[in-house]
Amino acid sequence: MICPNCGKEIPDESKICSFCGGKITSTKKRKYSNLKIILPIVIVVVLLFSSFAVYQVIKTHGDGNNEQEITTPNIQEPPALIPYRKGDKWGYCDSSKKILIQPAYDEVGFFSEGLAKVIVGGKFKVNGALIGKWGYIDEKGNMVIKPVYDGADDFHGSVARVWVHSDKAKYGSRYSLIDKNGNILIEADDIDEFRDGLARVYVNDRFGLVDTNGNLLLKPSYDEISDFSEGFARIRQGAKLGFVDAKGNVVVEPLYDVAADFHEGFVMVRLNGKCGFIDKNGNIVVPLIYGYATFEFSERLAAVWADRKWGYVDTRGNMVIPAIYDQAGDFSGGLANIMVEGKFDAKGALIGKWGYIDEKGNMMIKTIYDEAWYFYKGLAKIKLNDKWGYIDNKGNVIVPAIYDEVEEHLVYGFTHVKLKDKYGLVDAKGNIIAPPIYDGIGYFSEGLAYVVLNGKCGFIDTKGNMVVGAIYESARDFREGLAAVCINGKYGFIDKNGDLVIPAIYDGSFEDIDVPFFNNGLALVRLNGKWGYIDKNGTQYWED
C-alpha cells in the first residue's frame, strides 16, 4: 500500500511507515486480534528488554519488508468480462465495449471461479457508503445466488465468505461460508480471510479452522489460533499454548506458558519460568533449563541465557558456544552478531560493543560497533559514532558509516540513505547511485523509482539517471508499464519515456489512498465523482 504521509509504497498492514515514520490509519475493522496469543511472549520480551530488546528490534526490522521491486512490466490484458457502468448501473462488456451483461446492478466485482458478486437495491448512506444486498451472477448474467447478503467476498477454492448484519450477532454480523450453489456450509460469529487454504472460524468465543471446501478441520474449542508457520499454528487454551498442524491435528497439547513460531523445524517454549526448544513432534530437544532464549534456531544454533550471559546451543541441546556475551543475535551466513562490555545507560538500556562470531565461537569481526545487525546477502548494517553504514562478512567497510539513516538491508543491491534530511541511493558496492539531494525516494518498480525534488516528483533508473523530470505534483509506482502522476490536482498516466499517454483528468489524492494503478490491464479511476474502469489505451468503460 501507499503511505498517506509521504507517498511511498510500504508493506500491506503496516502501522508505521518505515520511511517517514508516520502513523498509518487502518480502515479495516477487526473484531479480535490475531496477536492475543503472543501476549505471553511480549511479557517475556519486556523482561528481556535490558539484555535482548535491541537485537529483537533488529531482527524484526530485518525480514525483508522493504524489498525494492525491480521487475519488468507484467503486461496483462483486461479480463473477458470488464465491469461497465451505464449511468449509475453496472454490467459487463468486452474490450470493444460490447455489452455482454446488461447494466442492472448498483455495484459489481470481477469474476472469480465463474461467479461475480453484485449489489442490488443499493442506496448511499450519509457518509457516502453504498449499502445494498449482495448476490452472485454467472458469466451469462444469471443470478445463481440470491442477493440476500450485506457483504460478500469473491469465491476462492469453491467457497465464499458472506455476512448478514444483525443486532443479535456478537459483532454486528453473522458470517457464513457458502458454496457455488448458495448452500451454507458453516455459520459463525466471525470467519477470517483464507490464508494458505485455511481460515479461522470464531463461535461462542472459541476458535477453530476450516478449509476452502468448507470442511471444519478443527472444532471451535480454543481461545486463540495463530497464523501458520512451517505448517503449524499455535493454539491457546486458557493460559497454555500448544500447536496444531494444517490438517487440524493437535500435535503439541497446550502445555506451555510461552511458545514462539516454528523455524528450521524447532520452536522455543517456556514452562515454569524456564525456556528450551521442542521439535515438530513435541519432543524436547533443548532442555527447559534456561532463563531466556532467542525465539528460533538459525543455521541450527539458538542463543540461550545462562548465568546472566548469552551463549549458543545446537539442536541436540549441547552448549557449543559458551555463555559469555551480553547480547546475542541469530546466525546468518555463518556469522552471528554479539555484544560485549554491556552497561546500562541512564534510561536503563543496555549498551555495549558489537561484533561477529562464527559457528565455533571464533571472533571474526571485532567488537567495535555501537550496533550491528545480522547479515543479509553478505552485508550487515552497522552503527559507529552515531552514524550508519554497511560492512561485508569479512569486516570490510562497504558503505562508510556517515549517514543519519540507512535501511535494514541492501535488497536487490540498493539502499536508501538519509543525510541532513535528504535522501539518496547507494548500491551494494558502496557506490552512490543517487546523491542525498532528494526530499524522498520511492522503491524501484519495473526498473524505476519516483523521487521528490523541490516538492515535485519524477523518476530515476537504477543508475540514478533522471529519466522522467521532476515536474509532477505527486506520483505512484509503475505498474504494467504505466504510472499515475498528478498535474494541476488531476491524475493521468505516463509511460517510461515520460509521455502522458492517458490525460490527467481523473480525481484522487494520496490522503484518500485512491490514486489509481493498473492491475490486470485495468485501473479503477474516479471522474466527476463517479467510478469506472479504464484500460491502458485510456478507453473508458462507462457512459453517463
Key features?
single chain; mainly beta; four-stranded mixed beta sheet; four-stranded antiparallel beta sheet; 49 strands; 4% helix; flat
Protein described:
The chain is built from one helix and 49 strands. Mean pLDDT is 87; it is low at 4-68. It has a four-stranded mixed sheet, with no helix packed on it. A four-stranded antiparallel sheet has the order 4-5-6-7, with no helix packed on it. A four-stranded antiparallel sheet has the order 8-9-10-11, with no helix packed on it.
The SS-based structural class is mainly beta
Q: Tell me about the biggest sheet?
A: 4 strands, mixed
Helix share, percent: under 10%
- Global morphology: flat
User: How much is the radius of gyration in Å?
Assistant: 27 Å
What portion of residues belong to β-strands? over 45%
How do the strands of the widest beta sheet line up side by side?
Answer: 3-2-1-49
Q: Based on DSSP secondary structure assignment, what is the total number of beta strands? A: 49
* Helix segment tally: 1
Average pLDDT value?
87
| Quaternary status | single chain
* Uncertain parts: 4-68
Gap between N and C termini, in Å? 31 Å
